[in-house]
Design goal:
The protein has 480 residues and is of the alpha/beta class. The protein is built from 15 helices and ten strands. α1 crosses α2. It is globular, with a radius of gyration of 23 Å. The protein binds 2-acetamido-2-deoxy-beta-D-glucopyranose (NAG) (6 copies). Its main location: Golgi.
Length: 480
Amino acid sequence: MATSSPTRFVIFPAILFLIVLIPLYLSPINRNQNILPHLLPTHSNLSETTHQTLQTSSSPSLLPKNDSADGVPSTSTDGARATNEIRKRFREKMSHVERIEEGLARARAAIRRAIRTRNYTSEKDEAFIPRGDVYRNPYAFHQSHIEMEKRFKIWAYREGDQPLMHDGPSNDIYAIEGQFMDEIESGKSHFLARHPDEANAFYIPMSLARIVHFIYEPPHYYGKWIPRLVTDYINFVADKYPYWNRSKGADHFLVSCHDWAPDVSALKPDLYKHFIRALCNANTSERFHPIRDISIPEINIPRGKLGPPHLDQPPNKRPILAFFAGGAHGYVRSVLFKYWKEKDDEVQVFERLPRNRNYSKSMGDSKFCLCPSGYEVASPRIVEAIAAGCVPMIICDHYSLPFSDVLDWSKFSIYITSDKIPEIKKILKAVPTETYLEMQKRVKQVQRHFAINRPAKPYDMLHMILHSVWLRRLNVRLPS
Ligand SMILES: *[C@@H]1O[C@H](CO)[C@@H](O)[C@H](O)[C@H]1NC(C)=O
Ligand SMILES: *[C@@H]1O[C@H](CO)[C@@H](O)[C@H](O)[C@H]1NC(C)=O
Ligand SMILES: *[C@@H]1O[C@H](CO)[C@@H](O)[C@H](O)[C@H]1NC(C)=O
Ligand SMILES: *[C@@H]1O[C@H](CO)[C@@H](O)[C@H](O)[C@H]1NC(C)=O
Ligand SMILES: *[C@@H]1O[C@H](CO)[C@@H](O)[C@H](O)[C@H]1NC(C)=O
Ligand SMILES: *[C@@H]1O[C@H](CO)[C@@H](O)[C@H](O)[C@H]1NC(C)=O
């Protein structure tokens, strides 16, 4: 396989985005919201654009002529039986890529129908049905998750040896790397493909936190070691198998929570142009692209546990207005400390929590939990706050919030930039009680999306990460 010409290559970022994200997130219920405004210049032109791209995205040449627009076989009539027969014969003749793309086309069709009908289609009983304001479009998300369960298959490359490969931390602040890797690589996940030909996404099983642990020698900067290792690995599998080249990496992904993870693509930006990086360090002013990349939550996992404690104080048993305790890491916190450190009874900010105070309990006793950036944009406090039923006040500049393809953070958190730090108390006091109570209820509603289960469960954090990859894969069509 030589290089494919740019015209044959079907991935154009603007189109990618329109194919899925518009139909998914700009459904009637969300039309008035200012969703992803940097990508969508005006709302008025949307319907036309959507219509056109939808036509290009469903692939008439791949589908049997009589395939219903919804991609769901009807089962009762003779005509339908004939159609199924045609489809069966057709499928036998399809290549692997065509078969995969046909499945994805059906998934897109089902999602579009769910948006239209405001309901879902599923072959099994749905234990959980996402509904409510916390979702940008609950119908689209629900159907997309159903389709993912049904069709998503991931190949984890097997090349490489431990400890640099196939191994990651499952505790502390980079734990998500090891938890995700173990979930996929343990062989128990039903998302794991049996053969790469059957996969619609490819996982690069490297934990950058682990690699840094083994090769970084303070005080020297790690230099170009990490990007080189990852790039070597990718070149190796791209040489050995056809999968990387056929998509230029657009169906390949890596999951990393390490601060330096965004640097993997720094040495060879062209190689990584379409590669999906799932990162905690989702700093949009450091080349994080929310359409291609995925913002994943940072979660601090204590030993022997799967996350921070879940606390359930009702809103009227939360005497503290706002709480934060943590190290003086990074410029946002230095501003926070300048204005609020041990200065106010209602906005309680500590660098060191007094001995007689319990950190988790304090979060559970607070109405709002301050979640300022540390050395990088993400902070494990967001997940801690959500687990504690405490409405997060996120204090960040240039942060693309986790899972924002699906979740509407404005409904269950408050986001301020660092220049608003002096006004924290004023802003929180201005939140009407009714609004606060709604927000707090919604925090509890999103808890399941920020919880880790092993094995993973539908709609939990690991599934949300997978779903983010799935959505991006839905945006891409491979040439057959
Ligand atoms: C939207 O429509 C207006 C008026 O027709 C036009 O000037 C503008 O360029 C359009 N924007 C896009 C993104 O097509
Ligand atoms: C297939 O579609 C054609 C027209 O496109 C129609 O005449 C025919 O009856 C359809 N067959 C079935 C089995 O639905
Ligand atoms: C939504 O779909 C489910 C399953 O297909 C069905 O049981 C339910 O009646 C539908 N609800 C509405 C309001 O159509
Ligand atoms: C993929 O492309 C690279 C660079 O063009 C080339 O070196 C490699 O051999 C190709 N891989 C395959 C499997 O053909
Ligand atoms: C701190 O508070 C949490 C939540 O109330 C509780 O589970 C934990 O045992 C407490 N820790 C200590 C050291 O008291
Ligand atoms: C995000 O990136 C910008 C640009 O490099 C940088 O100035 C800023 O410090 C970063 N944010 C954090 C919290 O590290």
